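Inputs:
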Amino acid sequence: MKDEGISEFVIEARNLTKVFRDFWGRPTVKAVNNVTLDVRRGEIFGLLGPNGSGKSTTIKMILGLLHPTSGHLAVLGQSPRSVSVKSRIGFMPEESYLYKYLTAEEILNFYANLYGLSGQHKTERVDALIGQVGLTHARHRRVGEFSKGMARRVGLAQALLNDPDLILLDEPTSGLDPIACREVKDLLLALARQGKTILICSHHLSDMQDICNRVAILLQGEVCASGSVQDLLTTPDTLKLTLQAPSQTTLNTILDMLERETGIRPQVDHTGRTLESVFIETVSQRRSDSTHKSSCSPEKSV
Amino acid sequence: MRVCFRQFFSLTGLAVTELFRQPAFLLVILSSTACTILVPLAISHQLGQQGHLALDSSLAFEFMFGIVLAGYAACATLHNECRSGTILIVFSKPVSRLMFFLAKYMAVSILLAFFVFCSGVASLLAERLTPRNFEFDALGLRLLLAVPLVAFIPAAVLNYFTRRSFVFYALLGFVLALIGMVIALGMVNGEGARVAFGSQIDWRILPACALEGIALLILSAIALSLASRLPTPTTIAVLAVVLFAGLISDHLITLLPQSGTVRFGLQMLLPDIQAFWPADRLASGGILSLSVMAHATAYAAAYTSGVLCIGYASFRNRQF
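Outputs:
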């Protein structure tokens, strides 16, 4: 029974601690303190926390780039320092750490070679990912000339090259415009539906709320809260009732009835759209119009 | 195994591509060539010296620019990769640190081999263009002035119309132009009369430059081992000290007691750069025999292996 449970976990961290030391070996900062985390297969797990809370350090330990000072850490059932386990992991770091003298295509081909991809399979995979992250028009441009958002797209594409089982993303939507951000979130949701496990660090709480199944909140290297997003967000003794706006008389009747029942007059408000949805709708509409116009223009027709 | 080779050649290829596209590399090659060819012209003109001055100065410039390039390339390919964070993505892939470290050394070695080749060609030209009896080689000087134009104009045109790397094509054009110049000058003498090809060129310079190149491979191993921790200026400074100490290592060791541990340690630690300094042998009209080259190569291979082992031990436990 216990074995079944363990095999379900893609990341198992028990009492994980990381202390950074100075040149003389004296401890300078305890970046991660006694963190225990379990990430299950096929879920999107979010690590939240303010700057310096230990999110990136935790991700680096999961990747084997930093060694825990104490505690137990297993990734896909193996030590994170094992080279072989990395063929099943995709990682997108917080900053777009890319070779600025290379083009987007050259970079993806390079990383594909590191995964051992070759021939037609490599070409198809690189082409597909360049298209998926929307960089077809810029595939031959040097990454040093890219905007931050475009560089993030290359970063995301390289993380997905090996069709990984576990995807680690550090601030994946940072620097992206709202439409690109929505596309990335949709892509991550699609990957999760395919059974991929995704661990995300982010400050963008609305993004995390949109896509994460479970989250853990880190503060000063310690887990302050963790659980499913649904559980954390639900206020058990409060309900939200959404209905098509009735007449004022009907509304007053309902409110009076509820007030008699609970002793408190319910608050009534209009449901609003989010700024994100307004932005996406407006820009998509404008793009669609301009595409339509250009496709109908005489030059295009000729 | 095939995957390992593919990874190794990809890492090496990427590092070489990056290094060859960096303007600093072009600048070092240009400066080195300019100094190698032009300084002997000025010295010989003032002092009325013959070709051996050109040889001495060109070999000295090869060492000088060689350590700058070794330090710069090692740091550009390793230290900068650690600092910029690109190494985080590489190590998130199934790549072992040993392979990464060795691939970087291979890349620096390829870069230095290219530099040594350029330096060798420039040294041939320097010796050939040195004024004899205060008479300059007019044809040679005209060809020399044409080299930058032949190299850079096509590279600029390519860059403008096709956005291809200016630095890479300028380097390629520059080297091809230098080789062309050697071939052209090999067929005529100082007065412009036809002679048997190569009879006016001191070909002994090429193995001498190669011998120095082997010493530069030792220095690049030291540079790479330092580059995992130190930035470029510090690495180049340490290399300069090692080069200087290596050049006088014979003298330094004789100052110490015959059977002391310090003497033994110094003998083991300091590279014997004197073994790679060919100017004295060439000045006396000798040539570099195969046994000298083989001895130097074996020494360099052993020393470089030791240095790379220490460098890797330091790099293996590095946390990012």
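Remarks. Residues 51-84 of chain B form the longest helix (34 residues). Residues 2-316 of chain B form one domain.
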